[in-house]
Design goal:
Blueprint: H1 11-26, E1 39-46, E2 50-61, E3 64-76, H2 86-101
Antiparallel strand pairs: 1-2, 2-3
Pfam families: RT_RNaseH_2
GO molecular function: catalytic activity
Domain Reverse transcriptase/retrotransposon-derived protein RNase H-like: 10-102
Length: 105
């Protein structure tokens, strides 16, 4: 924001703030995995910046289906790998994420 900018607290902004506050204080941050249910792996590589992945699972919570985060990882790309193309970077991260999410046993 600019130094002299006026920030007006509207009803819509107040509602958005309250919604965010509610979600952050009431929803579980991480859920325990249910090995009987399928998993979803979301990955994203920010061009020349870093990598991120999240392992999700859809479970029934309070009689409603809800997708929750089981595991979340990220890392900064090294200079040598920051020059990779988009496809190479996404594949690099897919391999990196799967190696870290592997369960032994």
């Amino acid at each position: 924001m600019f130094k002299d900018a006026v920030f007006e607290i509207t009803k819509e902004r107040r509602h958005s703030y309250e919604r965010i506050k509610y979600e952050l204080t009431n929803a579980p941050v991480l859920i325990l995995p249910d090995l009987e249910l399928p998993f979803k792996l979301y990955i994203d590589a920010a061009y020349c910046q870093g990598l991120g992945a999240a392992l999700h699972q859809r479970q029934i919570v309070d009689d409603e289906p809800r997708e929750g985060v089981i595991f979340d990882i990220s890392r900064k790309l090294k200079d040598s790998k920051a020059r990779y193309g988009a496809t190479q970077t996404e594949f690099l991260y897919l391999v990196w994420a799967l190696e870290r999410l592997h369960l032994s046993g």
